Amino acid sequence: MKINAVAFLILFSFIILSKSAYSQNFDVNKNLNDFFKVASENQIETKEWRVYYRSIMENVEQDDLNKMVTTIKRDESFTWSEKGNENDHKTITGVKGNDQEGIQITISLIKDGDLFDVSQSYQIKGKKWVGFNKGKAFNIPSQFKKVNPYITVTGKKVGQDINHLESDILDSLSASYVEGLKERNFVSVSGLSNKFDDSIQTKKGKAFNVQIGLRKSENKEIHITMGTPIITTEY
Fold this sequence. Notes:
single chain; alpha+beta; ten-stranded antiparallel β-sheet; 42% strand
């Protein structure tokens, strides 16, 4: 139960942080390469990478909402689906790609009187980091160009003490420990690294720009999640 609570707190923090801007100094390719270098240095088998953008608009009028949704859904390369209704909470999702690399757009609508609060997300994910190393650009929609992404890399490793692995990853990231939670088979830490230009603050006002989550299974396999500035998925 504690692990679920931690995951919830991380996701809740992400929702709060998504409404606040931080400086525009992200180099997506460099930051992903940094995480993959860390994985290589620590013999971590990488499983997946994600680049996640989020944009929030409040008090959107019905006509503007209709135009927004119509414009986005014109892209027929996506497969679109809808859930819920506009009088309560509606989610519109578009997906394209395959098991190796894919893109998902999600539009979440919450009605507030005659107006709407609209949350849009754009997520790129892949299994391998091949091609982007050669300078391939992330062609994101215009509504996300003024927000920085959240970057996550996951992997696994067998045969190492979970606390030692946490320390090794922090060292590889040139990161100092800021705060965290440690249990027997679960570690969640936030750190401050000079590899990343941007940072956000904890509730106590301490700056951090990287998070690491480690979970050890019964077969001694450690599942690893690394992200900047925060992890945006459950682990």
